[in-house]
Design brief:
Length: about 280
């Protein structure tokens, strides 16, 4: 069992929910990013770090913008791994780190052994949005060999049969896409979102985390009973983007009420007997 799976299982047994903030590596600047990562980790159970890519398939305008800014500053996957391997960075981030990367950057690692290098950099899991489950077996094996978790996504449009296959193969947790479309904050979630989450809960006992569009405490309170964790990305990056003079403080203001809302969803009656 990888570090992500271990953390999610521990939270499940305690009846608690995971907060998974998403940040783009190297944003707002390469110098500020390690400090931002440290601050975000204070609120997080798991941190998702996006690897900037020039041609994202699933990302909305906010994440696209932050990725472009990072790319213009020379942020690359080798730079990210080197930064995460730094002893000071290791000491400042006490929660599992998951990289979200499209396939192309992974294939550009010169020695071809991304998973070994990622494990040395203290990476606990990987999300590859453009990796079909049918082609994922070599990556699953490579991740498992390094005691890492390879996490797959399920969308509301995924068939029940294929969703079951993806859930079976996903390690750590299953990433549920809340609505059809790309990343980005939404004002509200339709009833279909909750139907989808309940169908997925009936499909698998693995931890479920939902992402895409979550931005406000009331949304966290609505979604938390249906899942094991919530992923917050575009809304967090937007407040960082809009506060260039103090991005760390902006992140703190954004995450504080979300953390509180998630903690309020904890109930002693939901504790799972570990025996």
């Amino acid at each position: 069992m990888g570090e992500v799976a271990t953390r999610m299982t521990a939270l499940q047994r305690a009846g608690k929910k995971a907060l998974v903030p998403f940040v783009t590596a190297g944003f707002p600047t390469r110098d500020v990013f390690p400090q931002l990562l440290e601050e975000v980790s204070r609120f997080a159970d798991i941190i998702e770090i996006g690897v900037p890519f020039s041609d994202p398939l699933a990302d909305g305008p906010v994440i696209q913008h932050t990725s472009q800014v990072a790319l213009e500053q020379g942020v690359t996957l080798p730079w990210i791994l080197e930064m995460l391997a730094d002893q000071q960075a290791r000491a400042s981030v006490s929660v599992p780190v998951v990289l979200m990367s499209y396939l192309n950057p992974l294939l550009q690692i010169s020695d071809g052994d991304f998973f070994e290098r990622a494990r040395r950099a203290n990476v606990a899991g990987v999300i590859i949005p453009d990796l079909p489950v049918e082609e994922g077996a070599p990556y699953e094996i490579a991740a498992r060999d390094q005691q890492m978790d390879l996490i797959y996504l399920i969308a509301p449009t995924t068939s029940q049969e294929r969703a079951r296959l993806i859930a079976d193969r996903s390690q750590g947790f299953v990433y549920l896409v809340s609505i059809t479309g790309v990343t980005g904050a939404r004002d509200a979630f339709p009833a279909e979102t909750f139907d989808f989450l309940r169908r997925m809960r009936a499909l698998t006992n693995k931890p479920l985390c939902v992402g895409f569009g979550i931005s406000r405490p009331e949304q966290v309170r609505q979604l938390a009973p249906e899942v094991d964790g919530v992923i917050v990305g575009s809304s967090l990056l937007r407040v960082i983007m809009e506060a260039p003079s103090d991005p760390i403080r902006a992140a703190q203001r954004m995450l504080t009420p979300l953390r509180r809302a998630l903690d309020e969803s904890w109930s002693p009656s939901s504790v799972i007997n570990a025996e």
